[in-house]
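QA checklist item 7 of 12: single-chain prediction sanity check.
[x] sequence parsed
[x] length recorded as 80
[x] structure emitted
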Amino acid sequence: MTNVFNPYFASVSVSDNDVTPQCNEVVLGSVFDTVHICETDVLQSINKLKYYISCGCSEIPPVLIKCPVLLLSPVLSTEN
């Protein structure tokens, strides 16, 4: 699916017939700069994955994430 969207979004601000689209600057009202993800949340989320479903857009099979869950959860959390 991402292979379908990537070419479209990659071409959004490319000149076409010598016309470049105008993009106005967007001013953000707030900044989302801090995210805390605890190891327990990572562990619970990984454990909810089904073993033998197809890969998502990351192309990483769930079984590759579930098997080393105890090694991966500390690394994927923001508590390190």
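[x] summary fact logged: The chain has a mean pLDDT of 80.
[ ] second reviewer sign-off
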